[in-house]
Hints:
Blueprint: H1 3-14, H2 27-34, H3 41-49, H4 58-70, H5 76-90, H6 93-110, H7 116-128, H8 132-142, H9 152-159, H10 168-177, H11 180-189, H12 197-205, H13 211-224, H14 226-238, H15 244-258, H16 266-278, H17 282-296
Amino acid sequence: xxxxxxxxQYLEEIASSSDASxxxxxxxxxxxxxxxxxxxxxxxxxxxARLPLDDDGFEATVRALLGMLGDTILETPVRMAAFSQLxxxxxRSARFAPFHADYIALLRRLAVDTDKQIRQxxxxxxxxTNDAEAQKLLREGLQKVRKPLxxxxxxxxxxxxxDHSGALQIFRELAVSGKxxxxxxxxxxxxxxxxxxxxxxxxATNKDEAGPLxxxxxxxxxxxxxxxxxxxxxxxxxxxxNSDRLRATAVSALAHAQGTGQTVSDPLRQELNALHGAxxxxxxxxxxxxxxxxxxxx
Length: 298
């Protein structure tokens, strides 16, 4: 069968009754279809999704998927479809093992791909393995040593997945000078950093700071500075000038703190009970009820 005839036959098959069982495909049939010179992206993606990952076709399928993922001529959706199928193939760890080194090498190359969606997907996958080369690229992007490969907030998030990524000082700097989501992610990444306690205290109590930043700072204090956390959370929760959401976050943090053996004073219990009766915020009332329940179970 020539290529054009194969193409027509395949399109007729997928356009047939929706009740029919999907027809299995193969690496060879995809290659033949792509070689027509005018493949439809949706059709190629559909064919990739049907590639067999059983014992008989596993090796040929993985080789084909690696080739498609690395082929910069193919449309991004096609390459991402190959990426998705490779993720499924990885679950068969014993069978995938012979391809693992080539896969990681490909991902490292794709981490600097010209397509931003491919770049981010590759870096996200490498981050799961704490890949040192990917971490270096992300650090250099944040430090502006090189053009960032992903948005700064995403880079922080990926680096924070590994406690040994070597980015702690970068997070500290961004928690002070970063903007928007980047600064939020940097603060989250410092959740266990005791050196950042003064910064958490300043942000948590500074009414000029954005609400989300203050919420993160309050929660961070719970784990890094228990001694000062209760007082800071109390001040935040009882200040009527703060948003109800921020106050609810502070009370929720106090409730969870009790479960870790941190003590809360009786006057604070009384103050929160009074606040429960006065506030109209459902979120704040709910947080106070959780606090009260946790307090009774101590």
